[in-house]
Amino acid sequence: MDEYSKLEKYIVASDVSSVRDGIGVEVYSGKDMLLEIFRDDTKKVREVTLYKKELDLELVEQAIAIFKKEIPWEFQE
């Protein structure tokens, strides 16, 4: 079984704005974003935002694994 079999599509994306500054992983099903895991270097936090009320636990776990694999853990100055 594929290690990330529940993830249809994900994108590593950075966001630099007046609200936040950092990098994260966006998980999609078709054109709909399901969740985002984001490392905010301004606030020094890692946050999860769900865009769908109910998500499969295995999908969420795989998204976290992708985040840990793709995104450096240390905050940037």
What this model shows, in words?
With 77 residues, the protein is α+β, with helices and mostly antiparallel strands. The chain has one domain (9-70). The protein has one helix spanning 57-70; strands at residues 9-16, 21-29, 32-40, 45-50. Strands 1-2-3-4 form a four-stranded antiparallel beta sheet, with helices on one face. The longest helix is centred in the C-terminal third of the chain and has 14 residues, at 57-70. It is globular.
* Number of helical regions: 1
Any idea what the shape is? globular
Overall number of domains: 1
- Measure the end-to-end span: 39 Å
Strand content: 35-45%
Which class do the helix and strand fractions yield?
Answer: alpha+beta
Fraction of residues in H or I helices: 10-25%
The residue-averaged pLDDT reads: 92
The description of the largest β-sheet is:
4 strands, antiparallel
Q: H/E order of the elements?
A: EEEEH
Identify the notable features of this structure and list them briefly.
single chain; 77 residues; alpha+beta; four-stranded antiparallel beta sheet; 1 helix; 4 strands; 18% helix; globular
Write the layout of secondary structure elements.
Elements: E1 9-16, E2 21-29, E3 32-40, E4 45-50, H1 57-70
Antiparallel strand pairs: 1-2, 2-3, 3-4
Outline of the structure:
With 77 residues, the protein is α+β, with helices and mostly antiparallel strands. It has one domain. Helix content is 18%, strand content 42%.
